[in-house]
Amino acid sequence: MVKKYKNYFLYNNILLFSVLILCVIGLTMIFSSSSVLSESKFSYLTRQAVFMAVGVLVMLVTYKININLFFKIEVYIYICVYFALKFGSIFSLE
User: For residues 10 and 16, what is the distance between their CA atoms, to the nearest angstrom?
Assistant: First the structure.
């Protein structure tokens, strides 16, 4: 059975802005800790900012998808994540 949520968009907006604020705080912390140690002041910051931008882009795309679609395909998502974790642990470099 698919449930409909009344305050779905309110909770999503709070979560969205919380994540974006934490990303900005994280980038500030990375810059302040790595600018002293690295040869280039912005080397770690740019690398982390690129990964953060990709993550935020994926988050915004999934934010626009209706939550009822996720309930319909949740078993397939669990299976894909399970195999991704298994293959990641098998083929890891360490």
Answer: 10
